[in-house]
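Margin note: ligand = fe (ii) ion.
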Amino acid sequence: MRLSYITSALIEERGFVILDRYQQERDPQEWLDLEYVDWKSSGETRFAPLASATGRIEADGFWSHDPPRADRDGVWVESQAKKAPNLVNRAKQPGANIGRCRVIELQPNSYSDAIYNLHQDDNNRLNPDGSGWIVRGYYNLSDDPDSYLLLRQDRYDPQTELRIRLVAGSQVIIDTQRLWHATWHAGTEPRYSLITSWESGPELDRYIASLGGHTDFDNPELDAEMISQAQERVNRKLAERAEAIAERKLDR
Ligand SMILES: [Fe+2]
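Resulting structure:
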């Protein structure tokens, strides 16, 4: 139930909004100076927290803390924030409440890996009724023109897949609790992205409008045969995993 949350009309339309490209090349590569922690999340990843639940360098969801709390009122990690003033400014620019804010490093993977990793986030756990629905900014930092952020309405249906090219400075805000998402990183070097949880509301709407927010774009084509083979493989793998989990439960 999310009837009582404040949402953004543009994000509601399709579950995401694309913003004007940021001129990433003008900024120093601050993300290379940050401290990373190993954190498995949809592939071979490491996280560099900029704002966390505690202000410490840790990547856990805010609801895993004691006391558990919603993904909002993130505390800046001072040692990190001072190394990355441009990234912090970009997170603060909307003026919306910020929860988790971190740079994610992802090692190259395959299309099959990516669609196996498709998942929905849990951004609104404990988010109080009447407040803004938590959505997330995905800002690509490295230049990865052959890589895509994959978004699906239906986890198992490639027809619903949108592919957003991860060129440097690409900026998308996504309702990652609604859309299945994962990154297909076809490069040879790690890919870096700034991911920020923001609260929907008038501040975020104004920010989206000021950066030309839109939901129409040309969805890049992929080879249909490659997609269907990968989907079959992943369906098989997911079915096997579900079976293994069910068997473990019966054993207990
Ligand atoms: Fe996610």
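Residues 119, 121, 176, 181 surround fe (ii) ion (CB under 6 Å).
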